[in-house]
Amino acid sequence: MASFLLFLSASVLFAQSTAAFNCAKAPIYVDIHKRAVHGTDVFQYGSFIGVGNPSQNQSLWPSLIRNDTIITDSNYCDHSTLANCAQSTRGNFDTSLSTSFVQEKNFQSLDHNITDLNGTFTGEFGQDDLHLYTHFFETDGASQNVVSKYTIEVATNGSAAPGIVGMGYSSTLLQTLYDQNLIAGRTYSLYIGSGMDRAGGVINGSNVFGGYDAGRFQGDVHKYPMRTDNASPFPVTVQDIIISDGGDSTSNISLFDPASFSNLKTRPDPFEARLTTEQYPLSLPYEITQNYIKKLSAGPSGNSDGSLKLNKPFAGTMTIILDDGFTITMPNNVMFNTSGISPVAARDENSTDPFLLSVAFLSQVYLMADYDTYQFFLATAIQEQKAVMPRTFCPKATPTPYIPPKASGFAQQGMIGAVIGGVVGGIGLISFASCLFLGLRSSRAAKKAERAEEEEKARGKATMLQFDIDDKTDFEAPPKTATPFFWNKR
Ligand SMILES: *[C@@H]1O[C@H](CO)[C@@H](O)[C@H](O)[C@H]1NC(C)=O
Ligand SMILES: *[C@@H]1O[C@H](CO)[C@@H](O)[C@H](O)[C@H]1NC(C)=O
Ligand SMILES: *[C@@H]1O[C@H](CO)[C@@H](O)[C@H](O)[C@H]1NC(C)=O
Ligand SMILES: *[C@@H]1O[C@H](CO)[C@@H](O)[C@H](O)[C@H]1NC(C)=O
Ligand SMILES: *[C@@H]1O[C@H](CO)[C@@H](O)[C@H](O)[C@H]1NC(C)=O
Ligand SMILES: *[C@@H]1O[C@H](CO)[C@@H](O)[C@H](O)[C@H]1NC(C)=O
Ligand SMILES: *[C@@H]1O[C@H](CO)[C@@H](O)[C@H](O)[C@H]1NC(C)=O
Ligand SMILES: *[C@@H]1O[C@H](CO)[C@@H](O)[C@H](O)[C@H]1NC(C)=O
Ligand SMILES: *[C@@H]1O[C@H](CO)[C@@H](O)[C@H](O)[C@H]1NC(C)=O
Question: What's the predicted TM-score (pTM) here?
């Protein structure tokens, strides 16, 4: 019932907004995983984006705070203090190798408020073409959308890794995509995944510009206002944090509970925390951090990101509860990896730094943001999914997850198999089939899916999605030394 109402309200909003936005426009899906990048032989985790002509490919990290997109000049590491620089820049860019790069000496960046950022850069601005790659299936090549004459910063010196897609609330990329009529509206969704080195995981992430991946989240979708008076546009309020150490419910301890922690005189107030990708570990208030240290026997890890290390094995989980009831559990492999490192940062008693729900949190959460109405949505991420289901995220609409049909052969066979088998029927399935359509286009199955789609259209049913992405190109080969070969979807 609840999801029906959600669907209904989404449809109403959808209908209202179609006048102002071209919501028939397909979203642009850009996968996040480890891959070969220009200028180094080390695979790096990030968004598959190329710059210039010919395309110098990068693996860009999404920032929720920066407005500009930054790439690394090929001489960056001559000056930078970034550790392990040559292998950490997420690709580099040689302006002289691009036939289309035009320097923009007078470009005025919006990015001045550096307090919430992981490092700063000096560089030059210039216009060039941006190639947004989509790579769904291991066996297929990547397809691309080209953003022409986009202004990018080429970092020549700094202390951290450039290679950043700026998705702050005045994101120049989102605005340019919208201005060039490449997406329906200024909407964007992010699953950061857990394939980066610090997380040590294998789950890949994705960006969806002008859309969301309906297969990437489940359960209730929670709505929050974006902040427009601060460089961090995604604040939420944390009401409780519960450590469960695997036993019965008596083993659940709230880090806010004065009865469990004698240093608390009263229960602490809920606190505002910002969503960020600028760091991996969470930054929590000092007294909460102290309780975490006490409960889990934590101490310094020596890791440069400030993460605490647990000095005793821990088999439990940590649950974060927001003030609207959204509940996210950090699984045990995030809480305690075999080196004992944990996802909470140390904090000084008098620190005035903001509280952060960072990459460790976002690896469990799907973020969907509407920069046209300044609101964002959070839902529980589905970590492993057989298929990618990008859908248009019309401004003002509420994203809805894909609900698999109950106990049918379809679900058991897996979605890809079903489409190949031509088991298509009903409006939900047809829009789902058209999601898969692009990825399957080059294969024989695509012809079947296409036929089924044509038939469905002929019967007068609207399809919710259409893909019109440029020609397929070959995916660049990984370095020969790389094992295993990383040629994959997502
Ligand atoms: C993530 O992407 C890598 C390629 O970088 C691939 O090898 C791996 O199988 C993918 N992981 C999952 C869970 O799909
Ligand atoms: C991004 O732009 C907005 C202005 O629209 C500004 O308030 C914000 O501080 C900028 N971000 C950074 C990192 O400076
Ligand atoms: C940065 O943002 C903070 C609020 O988050 C504000 O107090 C400060 O003045 C801003 N600084 C600049 C340089 O814009
Ligand atoms: C590069 O930046 C570092 C700090 O990150 C600074 O110490 C150094 O002087 C800068 N070098 C140049 C050439 O600008
Ligand atoms: C645990 O995390 C640390 C920090 O990211 C990493 O260096 C280490 O390799 C991880 N250990 C395992 C076994 O995954
Ligand atoms: C409390 O403990 C029980 C049993 O371990 C568990 O099922 C439940 O989810 C826990 N509650 C929270 C909020 O973590
Ligand atoms: C932030 O910068 C440090 C080095 O300055 C780096 O080790 C860390 O990985 C960076 N974090 C992210 C999320 O990029
Ligand atoms: C924090 O501030 C208080 C009050 O000014 C002071 O007594 C205390 O020593 C400070 N703590 C640290 C770690 O600096
Ligand atoms: C960048 O990646 C695209 C898509 O896979 C590929 O066509 C192109 O050749 C790559 N560029 C280089 C310089 O390898």
Answer: 0.83
* Substitution candidate for ligand 9 out of 51, 57, 92 with most atoms within 8 A of CB: 57
Q: Which ligand is nearest to the CA of 343?
A: 5
| Ligand 7 atom with the shortest distance to the CA of 61 | 14
pLDDT at 70: 97
All domains of the chain, ordered by start, with CATH? 27-182 (2.40.70.10), 217-392 (2.40.70.10)
Best substitution site from 77, 118, 197 to test ligand 7's pocket, by max atoms within 8 Å of Cβ?
118
Alpha helices for 262-315 (secondary structure H): 286-296
Give the residue whose CA is nearest to atom 11 of ligand 5.
339
How would residue 249 be classed by pLDDT, with cut points 50, 70 and 90? low
Quick check: 410 pLDDT over 80? no
- Ligand 3 centroid to Cα of residue 115, in Å, is 7
Q: Report pLDDT digits (tens) over 196-213.
A: 989 987 899 999 999 999
The beta-carbon contacts of 81-87 under 8 Å, at least 24 apart in sequence, are 81/159, 82/119, 82/158, 82/159, 82/160, 82/161, 83/304, 86/40, 87/40, 87/42, 87/44
- Mean pLDDT, rounded, for 445-460: 42
